[in-house]
Amino acid sequence: MKTTIKILLSIAALVLIFFVIKFKFLTNRQTPLPSTFICNFIDRAANSAGIAGTDLGIGLIRNNSLYLFFGDTNGGPKNKNIAASTIAIAPKSATPDCADFAWPRLEPLKSAKKPGTDLSTVPSGIIQVGKTVYLFAMRMTNWDFLNKKGNHGYGLLFKSDGTENFHETNTIWSPDSLHMNNAPVLGKSPDGQPAVYIYTTGQYRASDIFLAYVDPSQIEDKSAYHYYPNWTTDISEATPIIDANAGEISAVYNSTLKKYLLMFSNYSLKNGGLKLYTADSPAGPFEKYSLNPCDKNADWMKEGWRSCYGGYILPDTFGTDGLDVYYTLSLWRPYTTVLMKTRL
Predict the structure, then answer these.
(1) What are the residues facing 325 on neighbouring strands?
(2) Residue 292 and residue 273 in contact, taking contact as beta carbons nearer than 8 Å
(3) For residue 22, how many C-alpha atoms fall within 13 Å in the half-sphere facing its CB?
(4) Rounded distance, CA 1 to CA 4, Å?
(5) Residues 6+ apart with CB under 8 A from 255
């Protein structure tokens, strides 16, 4: 009798394990969140400012306005590469639209545009600490779109007392090391003190995602950064918090839901993939969502449009109930940035 009970319990345990594994499998294959096209940023207002194309679009709320920091900017076929970056500004809104933005033609970052040294310097993350605005950037020494030699560069930090005239600090990281891409967000350190958390990657589109935090007053001191999971200041002991060949990453705090939101492109997937993770704390555990805004059947994409990358979550743009997520998405063909929305 006892033997029979043990056998039945063993079978029940195996059945339970099977359903747990099946549940996790189905969870990982969940239906992507729907994406809604809002507008194309490169509209008449941008064209009137001499801007024919740009990418990225990293958001900052300052003085009740939403600032978007874009990447390499061109002025059309006869006037390419007019700026290493550019800015668009709109009144703060929970439901933004491209028509709200003005293009003052500020150039927060400049680039020498020289292969091997500074082929491209573009923003990767931005945060305000007190009255100072810190702009994380990546300086690419080599772009390799065929991926034969890889994309190489390094991360560095700029600062400004406003939203222009950014000055390079002495905070510069090693080539292809952590802090190539940086997504900063305010939070609390493990001991409850104010902290700037930074989701960060190494070599562009060929690195897992790591997590660090630093006291806001020490953001320019690389030796003061603490790395997950043991929060040591030894960068060599950093351990990935998310496994993915991540490219562009962004992080914001949703005060309505009291959640941290992390968005990134996962280039380890065969057809690419845009991921949205949410959590109660920067280190997780995460609730994971997938998005596929550039699916071949996406009705918002025009003929010839292709090669999406990004996106970047806009801060404080969560609709009336906090469940909307507005984000910028870049296209290589045509070279433009669009505004998208999904809903949790």
Answers:
(1) 342
(2) yes
(3) 6
(4) 5
(5) 316
* pLDDT < 50 regions, the chain: 14-29
Contact 53, 336 (CB under 8 A): yes
Q: Which pairs from 51-54 meet CB under 8 Å and 24+ separation?
A: 51/75, 51/82, 51/86, 51/103, 51/105, 52/76, 52/79, 52/335, 53/334, 53/335, 53/336, 54/86, 54/335, 54/336, 54/337
Q: Is 186:195 a contact under the CB 8 Å cutoff?
A: yes
Q: Say how far apart CA 124 and CA 312 lie, in whole Å.
A: 10
Peptide bond before residue 319 is cis, with ω within 30 degrees of 0: no
Contact 60, 133 (CB under 8 A): yes
8 A C-beta contact, residue 214 and residue 226: yes
SS3 readout for the chain: CHHHHHHHHHHHHHHHHHHHHHHHHHHHCCCCECEEEEEECCCHHHHHCCCCECCEEEEEEECCEEEEEECCEECCCCCCCCECCEEEEEECCCCCCHHHCECCCCCCCCCCCECCCECEEEEEEEEEECCEEEEEEEEEEECCCCCCCCCEEEEEEEEECCCCCCEEEEEECCCCCCCCEEEEEEEECCCCCEEEEEEEECCCCCEEEEEEEECHHHCCCHHHCEECCCCECCHHHCCCCEEEEEEEEEEEEECCCCEEEEEEEECCCCCCCEEEEEECCCCCCCEEEEECCCCCCCCCCCCCCEEEEEEEECCCCCCCCCCEEEEEEEEEECCEEEEEEEEC
CA geometry: angle at 180 spanning 177 and 184, to 5°? 125
Assigned token pair, 126? 């931005």
In tens, the pLDDT along 158-205 reads: 999 988 889 999 999 999 999 999 999 999 999 999 999 999 999 998
Distances 6 to 3, 12, 14, 244 between C-alpha atoms, Å = 5, 10, 12, 42
